[in-house]
What we know:
Elements: H1 2-23, E1 30-37, H2 40-56, E2 65-67, H3 83-91, H4 97-120, H5 124-150, H6 159-175, E3 178-182, H7 189-196, E4 201-208, H8 216-220, E5 229-232
Parallel strand pairs: 1-3, 1-4, 2-3, 4-5
Helix pairs in contact: 1-2, 3-6, 4-5, 6-7
Amino acid sequence: TGKTRVIANLVLQIYSHITSKKSNCKLPLKEKILLCAPSNAAIDSLVLRLMEIRKSLPSNQRFKLIRVGPPETIHRRVREIASQTLAAKEVGNTLDAENVKIDLRLLAAEETSLSYAIECARDENSRKRFTIELATNQEKKRNLESLMNDQGGNINSNHARAKLIREAETKVIQGAEIIATTLSSCYARKLIEAMGVHQSIRFSYCIVDEATQGIEQEVLLPLLHNITGIVLVGDPLQLAPTILSEVREIPLFCFFL
Length: 257
């Protein structure tokens, strides 16, 4: 959309500004850009646009973009740059219980999507294609479940590898230049640990897409990273925040004395 294009261009302008500052400093701060949105769909839409732009750039000008969040909630085309995916590649592809559980959740989500696609298929060829994909998906799922059962759920379940993945993910986050995540995850433990270890690493700017769809407290979360500047993008005439709390009648900002 036009809004996504504007945000992407804004990101590139900020990135260019940061990189120019680096070239003029002997000991530059490792400044990063934080991209947020209230939902996974919204942030992934922006990330997909940035991934397309990055592919069109010369290799020496491509920014380091990652997506932080549970892999099963991330768009399938974005998962390749998910921090957890990149960390697992760093450590290696040794099968462990945690990875199998993640794979099972991903397969379950894909199974639901394929079942819905079969129901909505407009022609027989599409229905057959989705049916074949669903059968393949279910076979993979059965094999993994069987493997888990055979091993009693303990496939190389050493805590050492899990620790290595966490450490690798911290390094992946620290090495990224643009980090995308949802508002609810922008102050998650993995980001706090990655950004808090080194005083020289910080978020200089944050852009929040679909800001009007988030409640006030949620939109203000990025400020906990001591961000220099924040840009809120949204349309107040569109969808308002969805609040499921039973105490929603209470004003969002309350001061108790």
